Amino acid sequence: MRAYSKDLRVKVLDAVDCGMPRKEVARIFGVSLPSIKRWLKRRRETGEVGAKVPSGPPAIKGAMLKEWLPAHLRSNPDLTLEEHCEAFEEEFGVKVSEATMSRSISGLPGGGWPLKKSPH
Fold it and tell me: Where are the domains of the chain?
């Protein structure tokens, strides 16, 4: 699930600041009352209204796949997802699931990449 945009958060909080009832603000902007409460608390405590930066280490596999996949797919268009995963592991020593490989291929710009699921 993606975070609400900072622009929307600012508009919601501005409406609350202008005295509009929170229930009405929630209905008009399509956000929940707990979200409004959380954004008000965050602004009060930190002065920030934007989404928090996700904790944890950066997604290393995703960046590696994004860079590696286009050339690999052009040179190996007939491989299955399993074979793409094996090729990635051979090259980088990092195991990746078929689901991750599928999402990475689907998310590449241009689209239309082959998604062969099983050998025929």
Answer: 6-46, 60-106
